[in-house]
Every structure is written in structure tokens, then in C-alpha cells.
Amino acid sequence: MLEHAKPDQIVELVLPFLWAALSDGRAPANICVDACLTLRNAYGQLGVRAELLPVTVAIRKENGTGTLYGSLTPTWSGTEWNGHCALVLPDSERFVDPTIEQFSEVRKLGMGPMVGKVTMSTQEGGSLVQPGAQIVMQRGDLVLTYTVAGPEALASIVEHPEAIAHADGHRRTGVNTASLTLAALRAEGVRERAMQAPHQRLRALLQAVGGAPYESDEAQDVRFHLPDESGQEQWLRLDEIPLPPGTPASLPAR
Questions:
Q1: pTM exceeding 0.90
Q2: What are the extents of the domains in the chain?
Q3: Which residues contact 20 (CB under 8 A, 6 or more apart)?
Q4: Which of 38, 81, 114, 238 could form a disulfide with 179 if both were Cys (CB 3.0 to 4.6 A apart)?
């Protein structure tokens, strides 16, 4: 993917696959909620707008049998949410399901997260996929039909005490995931295409980081060895790196 993705695809594609590799075997119970909240922050750090999209997904086999996962009216039971959610990237009209392999029939194929194009509709507040819309994708011999839930389903995630309580953790993990993605994008043969991506903040970060070394500190936060605002060399988190005036701020999680 790093070798062959086009400039306008590279960040959108690499981030969910990197998250899946990093979280393998260590994903929390509410895997789709935690994954999407983390990746929304990671995309935002690199200047890509990402929005939560609660959905159901019907997985149909070649013989016509299938299973429906999630709910259009999801609820919580303690710390467990009985819905399913993905992400939509409005500016590139992409749909990202980072945890589709939590379902055994898809996991058997071993193809990783689902990323595809969707048809967008303009609504007040930005471009969103309308509630009730269906997104159909193929994965091997499986047909995956996603149905978009309404605003009440979204509110059941972002307004729930569980999501609010872990907001700082999702942001921190998102920053670290974005940091590792940035390190991968500056590799030889990749950086030139990444610098052509339509994300000003990503380009500014690649310029600022250059070939600086990076490491994880005692708290497992990824830091780059770079000059701070005063010009003194420090180990800086991605969200601490000074960027040129006019660089778009990281996108807040909403």
C-alpha cells in the first residue's frame, strides 16, 4: 500500500491498516467505537476530516445466507455498545470500516480493514451520508451491505459517558497512530507521493519532521527529536511540533 497508493489515497488507506496492525490481539471490548474514535483523531492530526458513521452491516455469503450485525437503534449495556460504526471521509468521499474483521466470516479472508468510495449528499453542516442510505461492497465472495443509522445512533456514541470518559485516551492514541503513519510516509519512495497529497497539514508535518529520529517514551508516547518554539532540541509529540503560520490546525473530534 505504501509502495503503490496514489497521493490522494495514501493517508486514507494506510491509517486503518496501521491501526489494525498495532492493535492486533489487544483491541478493547467496544472495538468499533474505540477504533473509530481513535482513527478520527489520527486522521485529524494529519489534516483529514473524518466523521463517525453508525451503521448496520449485512454480510451475505455466495449461497445467499447471511448475518446482520449492529442496530439502527443501538443501545449500551454497561460499557458494551450493541451497534456497529465506521468512518466517512467527506472530502475524499471514502468509507472506512477499520474493524470489519471482528466478524469471523470476513476475518477468514484476511484482507484487513474495508476502505471504499461512497456517494455523498450535501446537508447543512457538511457532506454526510444520509440516514437510511445503503453502501454495498464486495469482499472476496461476500457481499457487505451497510445501512446508515440516524443522528440518534451517533448521539448514543458521542454523548455517552463511556465515550466522554475516554476522549483523552482516544486522542492520545490517535496522535501516536498518526505519528507512526507520518514516520512511514517519509520513507524513501513514499515521501514524494505523500508530499503530493491534498492535505496541507500533512505536507507541513512531513517538512517539519524531515529525517528526525523518533522513539516511544516511558508513557509509550511517540516523540520526534526536533527544535521547539524557542529553537531548543526536544523530544516532541506530533501535536507539539511547531508548524509554519497558516498551517491548518489539527481537526477536533466532534
A1: yes
A2: 10-169, 174-240
A3: 98, 101, 112, 113
A4: 238
